[in-house]
Design a protein that fits this description.
By secondary structure, the protein is mostly helical. 67% of the residues lie in helices and 3% in strands. Helix 1 packs antiparallel against helix 11 and helix 6 packs parallel to helix 11.
């Protein structure tokens, strides 16, 4: 459901639907407009914001309904995620199916999910500013980054419940470096996702639609034109896209290094399979990124690229979880011992 939420968020952003609902009603907002008068009321609110005046002037109630439904589904899906987490949690807690630490962790996830909804409204409200037709890039990145962080925490918890005991893997220089490189790849990938958020928020993907050069240049012209220099990382469109390209390439190279080291170390079983899957996943995501750029960010490609970023992160975390057994030498009654070398 979280993966679907990330996909819906991408589609909502790319279609400009995110500003169609002018009110944040966590409870009553679950019910869509049911009468023509309610539709007219919401449409009248939308007509007051700059996006309507500057981009959708005169597109009528039918056009408003088209963008409204995507944003409403996005918000409805978020509420359903909360219910799917909270209702079983109460049942499992009452029946004693889960322990106190897990109850606390899942309650924390529930609270953070509510906070993510508040961050989403904080982001949407920035698009109501005068002369603005989209949300503020920094607030978009905050919403996206928080979504990926929450997704990662829940996914890692799920892995740990499904596979509570690490399978021992001999601690050799190769296996240790494979684990370190996958951990590094996870960190670089996280930064790449943040850079991708700024690329999306500033619409930097709609320029320099060539690869591997940027309209014939290795570096985009005027890369460091803004002062102080750090502003280029967030506001200079050419620099923002270039940084995302470099980070994506670095992610792919790091994963490629982990794959080569792991294969030379003769990793076998689940760890080997996870590494192979990770290699294919990063190739697919890199190809999706290039395709999205060359096609000038069509909605389907941009949405798929954002969604597959979450899938790549999933596979990276899965691989890292599989490699947590490096250096585990024995399993006795649910306890594990690590070798000194690890």
């Amino acid at each position: 459901m979280l993966l679907g939420m990330i996909a819906l968020g991408g589609a909502t952003r790319l279609t400009g639907s995110g500003l169609s609902i002018m009110e944040w009603s966590p409870l009553s907002g679950i019910i869509p407009p049911l009468t023509h008068a309610q539709w007219e009321h919401l449409f009248a609110l939308y007509q007051q914001i700059p996006q309507y005046r500057l981009e959708h002037q005169g597109f009528g109630l039918a056009g408003f309904q088209h963008i409204f439904w995507l944003e409403w589904i996005h918000r409805f899906w978020g509420r359903m995620i909360g219910l799917v987490l909270f209702v079983p949690l109460v049942f499992f807690a009452v029946t004693g199916a889960i322990g106190g630490r897990m109850i606390v962790r899942l309650l924390l996830f529930f609270v953070l999910g509510g906070l993510q909804g508040a961050i989403g409204w904080f982001m949407v409200a920035s698009g109501f500013d005068p002369n603005s037709v989209a949300v503020a890039p920094a607030k978009l990145v905050l919403h996206l980054g928080f979504a990926f962080a929450l997704y990662s925490a829940i996914l890692w918890t799920a892995f740990s419940v499904r596979w509570p005991v690490a399978q021992p893997i001999p601690a050799t220089p190769g296996t240790i470096w494979a684990r370190r490189l996958v951990a590094t790849a996870a960190c670089v990938l996280a930064v790449t996702v943040i850079a991708g958020g700024f690329t999306a928020g500033t619409h930097a993907g709609f320029i320099y639609n060539s690869f591997p050069t940027m309209d014939g240049h290795l570096l985009p012209p005027h890369y460091g034109a803004l002062h102080p220099f750090w502003r280029n990382w967030f506001q200079n469109l050419g620099a923002v896209q270039f940084d995302h390209r470099v980070l994506a390439t670095l992610t792919a190279l790091t994963i490629g290094g982990a794959l080569l080291v792991g294969l030379r170390a003769a990793l076998s079983g689940p760890a080997h399979n996870a590494l192979m899957l990770l290699g294919w996943a990063v190739l697919a995501q890199y190809a999706l990124g290039v395709t999205t750029l060359l096609m000038v960010v069509p909605v389907w490609a941009g949405t798929l690229h954002q969604t597959f970023a979450a899938i790549l992160l999933s596979v990276t975390l899965f691989t890292l979880h599989r490699l947590r057994g490096v250096g585990v030498t024995s399993i006795r009654a649910g306890t594990q011992t690590r070798s000194d070398f690890a």
